[in-house]
Design brief:
The protein has a 6-stranded mixed β-sheet, sandwiched between helices. It has a 6-stranded mixed β-sheet with strand order 8-15-14-11-9-10, sandwiched between helices. With 441 residues, it is α+β, with helices and mostly antiparallel strands. Helix 1 packs across helix 3. The termini are far apart. Strand 14 and strand 15 form a beta hairpin.
Length: 441
């Protein structure tokens, strides 16, 4: 099969990032057959060519996907021995690097019983954002039950011309990238290969210890939450962010007087001049708010405050495009080097400055990545998708990240956190507080 090259552009910063693995679990009611599952994965080569891709990098650091460069995906199947066995596998796999130049960029694990099975996808973020990977798992189940899926032409952001006309870089983004690129050009411009990346990745995961946990809000609780949000004029996502800010404030007394920095990824598909609804790839940006829960106000008054701050950012012509414009303008070799300056062997001045300016070397923020309600049927042929759990990557600049997904009427909140920055006990208290607030709001 022909191998095509596709430019890795705004997602270039993902390539050498040591903590951008997306973890997603789908539980399926139905009989599991390993040869049929293997065949389903092979079928998807004709549907999502990026799934079987590897990466090549030229001398200037420009990177490309090589579609269909990988012959076979990694698949591990085993009889399920305990209920949350998949979670143990997920935590272990999160600490295992991908070889981007060799591929594959996704690993599948299936734990099964006589009546159901759990599919765990461990995916390099280069393959897609959370929205894309959720649809990929849906397509895996569809192919497994024998449904014919049409080929999806791979669309990617290839230049800033794909952005709306109003999405121009801010003055600060232009000034920073111009200055730091100039500094980089005057230096030695070190390059790092796959071997150096593997070493840096392992070093990062000795410095950070990423834990995973999740919580569930059932259909009845979701119905109550939806009604309460509607009555107070806020979205469920704004309620989650508010609950999370209060939970962090209450359970970290030494931080109670500080504002919590929360990054909120946003799906940009509808705003791009591209038709990328059904293909793999990254089409998300993010905005950031900084807030402190006002204990003199009630929960919903605080939620309205969060809503106001978020609306201000989202209504801005430029704020939602800051991240995409930033990485579109940075020298790709400098992007690589800043991770090595923080966690590997790189003394370049520009790389160290970039790492500091973008908080790569200082986990000081949090994030809430909400995929919303997934718009697909749970019943697929002879199988039924029972639930889904999403762990958004805990990037180097953050210490807690929430991954939220709603399937049918059930919402799952996945917590990815650095145990070196926040203990498992504290994180359990945070998740319990978030759940209590959302259930009783």
């Amino acid at each position: 099969m022909k191998s095509n090259k596709l430019h890795i552009f705004t997602e270039r910063h993902i390539l050498r990032n040591p903590a951008l693995t997306v973890l997603m679990k789908m539980s399926v009611d139905g009989h599991f057959d390993e040869p049929r599952f293997e065949k389903a994965l092979l079928t998807l080569k004709n549907v999502h060519p990026l799934l079987y891709s590897s990466v090549i990098i030229d001398h200037d650091g420009v990177a490309y996907y090589r579609e269909n460069a990988v012959q076979q995906l990694e698949l591990h199947c085993a009889i399920r021995e305990r209920q949350n066995q998949w979670l143990e596998v997920a935590e272990t796999e999160n600490k295992r690097p991908f070889n981007c130049e060799q591929g594959p960029l996704v690993r599948f694990f299936v734990l099964y019983s006589e009546t159901d099975f759990d599919i765990l996808a461990t995916v390099h973020h280069l393959i897609g954002d959370g929205d894309a990977i959720a649809r990929l798992l849906r397509d895996v189940v569809a192919a497994y039950v024998g449904i014919d899926l049409s080929h999806q032409e791979q669309i990617l952001i290839s230049s800033q011309n794909d952005f709306p006309h109003i999405a121009k870089p801010t003055f600060l983004v232009k000034a920073f990238t111009r200055s730091i690129n100039k500094m980089w050009d005057k230096g030695e411009q070190p390059r790092f290969g796959e071997h150096e990346y593997q070493e840096m990745f392992c070093n990062y995961h000795q410095i950070a210890d990423i834990g995973l946990s999740y919580s569930t809000i059932n259909a009845s609780e979701m119905n109550d939450l939806h009604k309460a949000c509607k009555a107070h004029g806020v979205t469920i996502n704004e309620a989650i962010v508010t609950a999370f800010i209060l939970a962090m404030q209450e359970n970290r007394p030494h931080m109670s007087n500080e504002k919590t920095v929360v990054g909120i990824p946003i799906n940009m598909r509808k705003q791009l001049s591209l038709s990328a609804d059904d293909c793999l790839g990254n089409f998300a940006s993010a905005v950031t708010i900084k807030d402190r829960y006002d204990t003199k106000k009630d929960f919903w008054q605080n939620a309205v405050q969060v809503r106001s701050k978020l609306k201000s950012k989202l209504k801005s012509a430029k704020a939602p495009w800051v991240v995409l414009n930033l990485y579109a303008l940075l020298n790709p070799l400098l992007i690589d080097a800043m991770y090595f300056a923080a966690y590997g062997k790189c003394d370049d001045v520009a790389a160290k400055k970039a790492a500091a300016m973008l908080s790569v070397d200082n986990p000081s923020s949090t994030a809430v990545s909400n995929l919303g309600r997934l718009n697909f049927d749970c019943r697929i042929g002879s199988c039924r998708i029972r639930d889904m759990v999403f762990f958004a990557p805990k990037a180097p600049g953050s210490y807690v990240v929430l991954g939220v997904v709603t399937l049918g009427d059930t919402m799952q909140i996945g917590f990815s956190y650095d145990r070196k920055k926040i203990s498992s006990d504290t994180m359990e208290n945070v998740s319990s507080t978030v759940l209590e607030l959302l259930k009783n709001a």
